[in-house]
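Quick log. Single chain, no ligands specified.
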Amino acid sequence: MEPNKYQPKSGLDKDLKKISHIESAVLTQGQSMARIGLGLLFLVGIWVFATMQTGIGGISPFVVGAAVIGGYMALNIGANDVANNVGPAVGSKALTLMGAIIIAAIFESAGAIIAGGDVVSTIKGGIIDPKFMPDAQTFMTAMMAALLAAALWLNLATYLGAPVSTTHSIVGGVMGAGIAATGFDAVNWATMGKIAASWVISPLMGGIIAAAFLYLLKITVLNKEDKIAASRTWVPIVVAVMAGAFTIYLMNKGIKHIYKSNWTEMFIGGGIMFGATWALVRARIIARSKNMENRKKSVNKLFVIPLIFSAALLSFAHGANDVANAVGPLAAIVSASETGQIVTKAGIPLWVMLVGALGISIGLLLFGPKLIRTVGSEITKLNPVRAFCVALAAAITVIIASALGLPVSSTHIAVGGVFGVGFLREYIAKRDSKKLSDKTASARPSPLAAAEAAAEAGAKTVESITPSLSVEFDGMDKKSIKAKMKKSKKRKLVRRGHAWTIAAAWVITVPVAAVLAGVLFMVLMGLGIGA
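-> predicted structure:
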């Protein structure tokens, strides 16, 4: 006889369910401990590797310690910052999580090693005047404190699920350690003011540009009756815009250490790439769209390959630029240890660059998925079209900011772009809902439908419902009306909790890293740790 599925569960069933939950929790905890163990193993490997590089006759424990901290910083850059490049592609399902990690690891490493340059600025952004440093040993200790403080803050931000700027983290660390070592006079406060302004400029520009391109695609393609015909006209244009923008972006940021281009060369290169891409993509889309259904889903498919390319190119440019955040202070320490001099520019030994490149890749592999999910799917829902707009906004915003001489954060731009497309979707949904509520008001909808329409239109209480709708609620329980309105108002397309958490993390990044670096510098000096 078949058991009754409606029969209450026995005590044994409940116990088995509890055991299953415990096993799942233990497995998750075990995986977390395994990742931490592999990260520690990587740092031990750096310690051994750095010891070998310093030479048997002149081993400097201080340099070895700095190398380990540099590796720790690189791990945290991979865990936190790289998510901004591939998160939208993963959230839109253009890439699987593992596929994104592989692409990012390859192109981040390639960018760092091929285009990272052989000279790096030792004091990020020129925020500390080195002439105030009393001696090379103090300078080296300050750089170590700055590097460790930035790494610790990035680690905490990753744990909290907040994508933050690694550039701002190291800037805060250098500033705090510099103040502790020399006083407030050493800080270039004008530069710090520009960096503070970028907290607003970066996400705002990224959000506006991403929302603008999404709106353009909606009115030119997605909302058209014949979406396929519209795609043949507009998709090649916007993909070509992306190709041109990324060409300029890479010439400006990605390969600047190999070849320094002027703006004329950049725009000529971007124009050539625009034309070539438009011709190729147009031919491809005309051929591919012949058998496509006239649906938004079909349009989204056309953006998958461009989105994958954008993730790879963003990762390459990020590796070429942001690896300096991990190895810049380390290169400064190595240079000061070898020469006994304080320098604002230092050569990067190959082994130092490898520490940064490998650390970023391993950090991404071990700890990156959390932030990739946050950026890709937990802030707002992304599809290939929306994710494409975010990637395009990232490239264009960096170009505009560079042309205007504005300091911007690639992290803030990318996350701002995600928020931009999310808030645009909310605006459009609210606008369309209001139009619908106006129509249903004259059509005498059901009481529950009227309650939902009223909430979407902005009514906050039952008493505030317009007379044209409130007549529909005669004889209906006021509690049911309130419940329906509350459910409707909660239907947000951007998670407000994530917005506030990320914004707060951005604002406190520089001051927290600065305070932490100042404390660490005093501790290191108190312990007599030096070269």
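Strands lie at 119-121, 345-347.
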